[in-house]
Design a protein that fits this description.
Mean pLDDT of chain A: 90
Mean pLDDT of chain B: 96
Number of domains of chain A: 3
Structural class of chain A: alpha+beta
Oligomer: heterodimer
CATH topology of one domain in chain B: Amidase signature (AS) enzymes
Number of helices of chain B: 16
Low-confidence stretches of chain A: none
Shape of chain B: globular
Radius of gyration of chain A: 29 Å
Number of strands of chain B: 11
Number of helices of chain A: 15
Distance between the termini of chain B: 26 Å
Largest sheet of chain A: 9 strands, mixed
CATH class of one domain in chain B: Alpha Beta
Strand content of chain B: 5-15%
Helix content of chain A: 40-55%
Chain lengths: ~475, ~500
Amino acid sequence: MSREDYEVVIGLEVHAELSTKTKIFCSCETEFGGEPNTHCCPICMAMPGTLPVLNEKVVEYAVKAGLATNCEISQDSKNDRKNYFYPDLPKAYQISQYDKPLCERGFVEIETEEGKKKIRLTRIHIEEDAGKLNHDEFGRGSLVDLNRAGVPLIEIVSEPDLRSAKEAESYLRKLKSILEYIEVSDCKMQEGSLRADVNVSIRKKGTSEFGTRTEMKNMNSFRSIVRAIEYEVERQIDVVEDGGKIEQETLRWDDVSGKTFSMRDKEDAEDYRYFPDPDLVAIRLSDEYIENIKKGLPELPESRRARYIDEYKLTEKEANLLTSSKYLSDLFEDATKISKNPKAVANWIMSDIAKTLNEKELEPDQIPFTGEHLAELIYLIEKGTISNTIGKKVLAELFENPNKPSKIIEEKGWIQISDEGAIKEVVIKVMEENPQSVADYKAGKEKALGFLVGQAMKQTKGKANPQMLNQMFKEELNK
Amino acid sequence: MNITDLTVHELMEKLEKKELTSEEITKAYIDRINEKEKDVDAFVTLTTDDALKQAKEIDEKRKNGEDVSKLAGIPIGIKDNMCTKGVKTTCSSKMLENFISPYDATVVEKINEIQMPSLGKLNMDEFAMGGSTEYSYFKKTKNPWNLNKVPGGSSGGSAAAVAAKMVPWALGSDTGGSIRQPASLCGVVGLKPTYGLVSRFGLVAFASSLDQIGPITKDVKDAAMLLNVIAGHDERDTTSAIVEKKDYVKALKNDVKGLKIGVPKEYFGEGINEEVKETLEEAIKKYEELGATVEECSINVADYALATYYIIACAEASSNLGRFDGIRYGYRTKNYENLKDIYRNSRSEGFGAEVKRRIILGTYVLSSGYYDAYYKKAQQVRTLVKQEFAKAFEKYDVLLTPTSPTVAFNIGEKSENPLEMYLSDICTVSVNIAGLPGISIPVGVDKSGMPIGMQLIGNHFEEETILNAAYTYEQSIKFKEKYEPEFKK
């Protein structure tokens, strides 16, 4: 069989850290970073005798996520214990949800080459994050950091509806943007606050049975997810084509070698012994509670998209790209509010900013400057204080050392020379230094003008106002 | 007058009348500890020096006219599974031999607030698993009535210390009878409050849905007073109930006229000692004389309660005790080369046989493929047990049963036979399963002079009813005035 005869089946389990101020079962702060074991207390360190108290914000955020992804919200839900031993799990059980998750049966829509496609969500449940192990930091041991232990997570489980690495990426981008829009997670993949377990299997096209799946855990960049899926699909096809069988197992993706490796053998298959946590009372949500959260949901990407086309007269393509990320969309709105020039703002984001993000391999949430900065940059160009060329240099500088663009051009001395006297001085100087070109122009060689303007630009390090320069040369040469 | 013979309410009066000082009281108890502890072995850790210092400070405050609680300066003993900042909390386990909690349990905070000096931490079966205190890693506590006998358990140290008058009163914890059964075997009063009445925060968990802290005291009035101190909602424990604050002492009316008492026949069947039965029959007669109506009744599912209890308690314990893994605190094996070794060897070496037995049992009943047959079934039976009790309380105010099928048994008699040990919980476990309050009071002694206990069970949050019923009978038989532990060797 050829490769085209196989269909790829992918399902994602996405973990998003919720951006509540405090942890899920105690009042420790959730902030990323911090010296090891400074954001913990007897409760999240699982000292004997401590008890969890559920943070109500966590329920609210999870319900928000459920509503924004078209889920049914369970009014009757509970917490369960998932038991296993690992040093980053201080209680030796993770408080999660087993058979009664908060949200069930939702969907999100993604754009594919064949048009829109609904990806179904099985469930969204709340649980606590584990701590972190720092290996080999001092000698041969491993050190436990419990700052992250008890940080609230939602786990979003999709149905196996995804059919390619590209679809998986679109789905994850869509999910990320929704979570950003409703402000329940900052979704910083580089900090691990959004990560995915990827389940991949293959089957012959036209069959309805699923193949045996493998799982790659804790993937935290789009690039590695796409690469890992592509690699894993090829590997599975090779195994099957060689007459082998796919083993159901957990794999580790290695970004450096670009390969997957088996993580543990099947003998270690875990039995988590889930059971309802007797320390926590059941979660009961009233209709009113759910309705109130629904009313409080912010504008979602779909609606922003429509508004951009309608109100700002952007093209569909522009609106799609801008709303793909809340950070881009917010940047656009913030800048537009000040500059009143949505087209220019959109152009900058779509071209130079998008290009820079791509080159630097950054996500939109890592843009270090604000909409106000961008608006000022556009204003300075419109006003003629700087040229478009200098504008691009200012943008590059904004990525390096964000500051007010007016400050940047002042410090760098990039202000465009628009002073008539100063321009005239340069024009006369260049004409004196280049008599041949002057003579050529007067003899009818129009091209010589371009050369002279170029020389003047060189002398002013690109700061001279090009229109004025042109004008002035013509005047002087025609005298 | 012997200070250690007095109840806490008597001590409180004498403090008020300035006939005694906190220092005198505390000193008397320390002297008593110095005299009897070598025979009884009730304490894991003594904090007598700190207690005396605190007592002196309180006398000073009283002298200066500072506003202190009436109970301030009256000492107490605490079971060693309640966390105390700065003082070891061992759960009588090698696993926590040197463990010092960084925080105080809610009940300990309440005691500190009132300024009751703690004389020390009291011995127990390891992690509260057992009915004789023989499963303590450190020592076997003896029954003050006969030093060859067990004090019961798991709060055996607390009950023995109160019976031996080494503490005026003590805190115990009760998961399947661990307050009531040792109280019964030691001839003192033990109250297990309704699940949720007392905060569990800081109580090292054995079985979270069953554990409750309660008083072990010389008489019923003291039990009501100590319950006043420890009861109340705690926002750190979401299973603690929001109920109005009551004064349980006010409930003690010495009057049971019109009280409807049910006597469930299932608790008087096979395995219940004849002398225990006879003594309770006397109690029943007495209640009728006092104006209560007594009727035989039935709690149908009682026969399944013990099995249900051991499945649920062990399941929860297997998970609760996972945190003792040798990583952050507690015992860590010296013998390891990898992570698995640390887990396996720390837990193998750090836990005693009974604890391991229950962890294995609990792990089994939660395992995939067995969950439905055991844990889920047990939860269903639990619901039935609750319903049976609810039905009974439609008709009766109080249910009357033995606390323990037998009087205290010999040290070593049952410790090698876990099933027989489990049977000593048969009268008490269903109360925990249903989350009800239960009290045990001494009602007589058998031919060998060992005390016999009676259990009164009430409806949820009806502590007042059982306290009054217990108090009324106590007043009529005057057990404490008639019998005295003899420290028989």
